[in-house]
Design brief:
Layout lengths: L1 E7 L4 E4 L6 E3 L26 H10 L3 E4 L23 E3 L4 E3 L5 H11 L2 E6 L6 H12 L5 H8 L10 E4 L14 H18 L4 E4 L12 H10 L5 E8 L6 H5 L2 H22 L6 E9 L24 H16 L4 E7 L8 E3 L5 E3 L3 H10 L3 E3 L2 E3 L2 E2 L7 E2 L1 E7 L6 E7 L6 E7 L5 E9 L18 E4 L8 E4 L3 E9 L4
Parallel strand pairs: 1-21, 3-4, 3-12, 4-7, 7-8, 8-9, 9-10, 10-11, 11-12
Antiparallel strand pairs: 1-16, 2-15, 5-6, 13-14, 15-19, 17-18, 19-20, 20-25, 21-24, 22-23, 22-25
Length: 500
C-alpha cells in the first residue's frame, strides 16, 4: 500500500468558494431542452411542460446557476423568436448544429423553469450575427420594470415582474472558426466593449463575462485574452474558459492526469488577466468563468437527419473512468477558487450530461453525476491551502503527476470539513493521513467511496448500479487515516463534535 499525507490548517486558506462554480449549462442542442428539461405530455411533466423527474435530479445536485441558450447556438439566435405567443413563433434553420429550432421554449419559459427548479440564469447574448442593439434590448426586456418598449413587451407576454438576470455572457467562443460571426480578437474586443457598455447603461447591476479562447489548445490562447481584455477591461467582470477532455486512446493513466492541464490553463489565463490589470493600473481584478467543462467524446455527432428537430446529438455515455476525471476536474476547480468564480459543467441533460432521459420515458443519473453532486453538496465554504505529500508518476503527456490528488473545504458556519480525494493508481491502495493542525473538536462522520467498478462500467435506464456507497464513521470518530482504494473518488466528511 502506498502512503500520502494532507496537512491542513484553518488559517491556510485559498479563497471562499463561490457557489456558482457548481453551475451547469443548457443549450438549444439535441435533446437538452426538448425531451430533456422540457417535454409537454410526458407523464412526469408539470403544468409548464417541465419534466419533474429531471428537476428532482437537478435539485439533488443543487445547481446554483445555468448558462443559456448557448453555446454555438447563441451566435445565430434571434432572442425575439423565443418570446410571445408560442403559436406565432417562427421555426428556424439552426446552423450551429444543422437542426430545426421550433422556438417553443424561449426566454420566459427558461426563466419560469429556473424559478421552479430553484436555480439562477446565466444568459448569453448573440455577438455572432448580431450585436450591441439586440443585446441591450434583451437586457431591457428582461430587467427593466415597465414603461418602455421592451419591458412592456415582456409584460404583454405574461411576465409582469422583471426577471432581474444578473449574469450575462458576451457571446460564445468567438475565436473559433466554427462560430457564426467568427471574429478576430480586435473585432470581438471592440464589439464586446460597446455591447457591455450599453448593457450596463440599461442595468448597472449586471455582471458580464468576456469570451476567452475556446480552449487551451487554440493558437489564439493568450494573445486573444490580452487583446480583448485590453479593449474591455473597465466594462467586464470575468473572462471565460472552456475545456473538455477525452480518452479516445484508452490510456487511463494519461486520461487521469489531464486535470493537470486544466490547472495550468486556469493559472495561465489568470496571469494574462493580471498582466492587463497591471497595464491599465486598475484595482479591479478580473476573475474567471469556466463556463464549459467536462469529458467529451464527440459521440453521435453526425448520425442524425439534417434539419430534424431535437435529434440525438452528442449523447455521450459516461463510464466510471470518466467520473474519476470529472472528480479530478472538480478538485482542480476548488483548488483554483481564488480565480475561478463561475463554472458550468456542460451540459446538464442528455447532451454530454450527468442526467439522461428517454423521450417519453425514464430519467437516470450517469456516472459523472455523483462527483458533481458531492462537490456541490459538500464543497461550499472556504477552500484550504493544504500541503499534499504523495508519490509521483509520469504518463505519456504529463510528468510528476500525483498518485493522489486532494483538496479540502471548510464550512465556516457549521465548522464542518470535507476532503475530496482521488487515487489515480490503477492497482494499489493509498493510505491518506490527514494532519489537522488546528481543527479541534472535529469528528469523522462519513467516508463516501466511489470505487471497485470496471473502469468502463456505465449506468443505463435499467441499471444504475455504478454509484457510490457511504460508510458511516461513528465507530471511529478520531479517524485520521483513510484507505483510498485503487481508481477511487473519495469524500471524507468531518463535523463539529467532541473528540475522544
Amino acid at each position: 500500500m502506498k502512503h500520502s499525507k494532507l496537512t491542513l490548517s484553518k488559517d491556510y486558506q485559498i479563497a471562499k468558494v463561490d457557489d456558482r462554480v457548481f453551475g451547469s449549462f443548457i443549450e438549444h442542442l439535441g435533446r437538452a431542452v426538448y425531451g430533456g428539461i422540457y417535454e409537454p405530455g410526458h407523464p412526469a411533466a408539470d403544468e409548464h411542460g417541465f419534466r419533474r423527474d429531471v428537476m428532482d435530479l437537478i435539485r439533488q445536485i443543487g445547481v446554483p446557476v445555468v448558462r443559456y441558450p448557448g453555446g454555438n447556438f447563441v451566435s445565430g439566435y434571434n432572442w425575439e423568436d423565443g418570446v410571445g405567443p408560442v403559436e406565432m413563433r417562427p421555426r428556424r434553420l439552426e446552423l450551429a448544429w444543422s437542426t430545426t429550432e421550433p422556438n417553443t421554449f424561449g426566454t420566459n419559459e427558461f426563466m419560469q423553469w429556473c424559478k421552479v427548479c430553484g436555480t439562477a440564469p446565466m444568459m448569453a447574448v448573440n455577438l455572432g450575427t448580431r450585436g450591441p442593439d439586440a443585446a441591450r434590448n434583451l437586457v431591457e426586456y428582461c430587467n427593466h420594470e415597465k414603461g418602455t418598449c421592451y419591458s412592456d413587451l415582456r409584460r404583454s407576454h405574461g411576465a409582469e415582474a422583471p426577471h432581474n438576470i444578473k449574469l450575462w455572457c458576451l457571446g460564445n467562443e468567438m475565436d473559433g472558426p466554427w462560430q457564426m460571426g467568427h471574429k478576430s480578437a480586435a473585432e470581438y474586443g471592440r464589439v464586446a466593449n460597446e455591447t457591455a457598455k450599453l448593457m450596463k447603461w440599461v442595468d448597472p447591476s449586471i455582471e458580464l463575462v468576456l469570451c476567452g479562447s475556446s480552449n487551451s489548445r487554440m493558437p489564439t490562447f493568450g494573445d486573444w485574452e490580452a487583446t480583448t481584455l485590453d479593449l474591455c477591461y473597465d466594462n467586464v467582470d470575468y473572462v471565460s474558459l472552456h475545456q473538455y477532455f477525452d480518452c479516445s486512446d484508452r490510456d487511463t493513466p494519461n486520461f487521469l492526469a489531464k486535470s493537470c492541464d486544466l490547472e495550468q490553463y486556469i493559472r495561465a489565463a489568470a496571469c494574462v488577466c493580471d498582466y492587463v490589470q497591471a497595464k491599465h493600473r486598475r484595482k479591479k481584478k478580473i476573475h474567471l468563468s469556466l463556463d464549459e467543462w467536462n469529458v467529451w467524446y464527440h459521440s453521435h455527432g453526425a448520425d442524425f437527419e439534417k434539419w430534424s428537430e431535437a435529434p440525438h446529438i452528442l449523447e455521450d455515455v459516461y463510464n466510471f473512468e470518466d467520473a474519476l476525471v470529472v472528480g479530478l476536474m472538480l478538485i482542480t476547480i476548488l483548488r483554483c477558487s481564488d480565480r475561478v468564480k463561475i463554472a458550468c459543467l456542460a451540459q446538464l441533460v442528455n447532451v454530454i450530461a450527468p442526467i439522461m432521459t428517454e423521450t417519453g420515458g425514464r430519467a437516470w443519473a450517469q456516472t459523472i453525476f455523483y462527483p458533481y453532486l458531492h462537490a456541490s453538496r459538500y464543497g461550499r465554504g472556504t477552500a484550504l491551502q493544504g500541503i499534499l505529500t504523495t508519490g509521483k508518476h509520469d504518463t505519456k503527456d504529463f510528468t510528476d503527476v500525483g498518485d493522489v490528488d486532494a483538496v479540502a473545504v471548510r464550512n465556516e458556519e457549521t465548522g464542518a470539513l470535507t476532503v475530496f480525494a482521488v487515487n489515480r493508481d490503477m492497482e494499489e491502495s493509498n493510505l491518506l493521513t490527514l494532519d489537522l493542525k488546528d481543527f479541534d473538536g472535529l469528528r469523522a462522520v462519513e467516508h463516501i467511496r466511489y470505487d471497485g467498478f470496471d473502469r468502463y462500467a456505465v449506468n443505463t435506464a435499467n441499471d444504475g448500479s455504478v454509484r457510490p456507497r457511504s460508510e458511516a464513521l461513528t465507530a471511529a470518530p478520531d479517524a485520521r487515516e483513510f484507505k483510498l482504494n485503487p481508481l477511487s473518488w473519495n469524500v471524507i466528511r468531518f463535523e463539529k463534535g467532541t473528540d475522544k
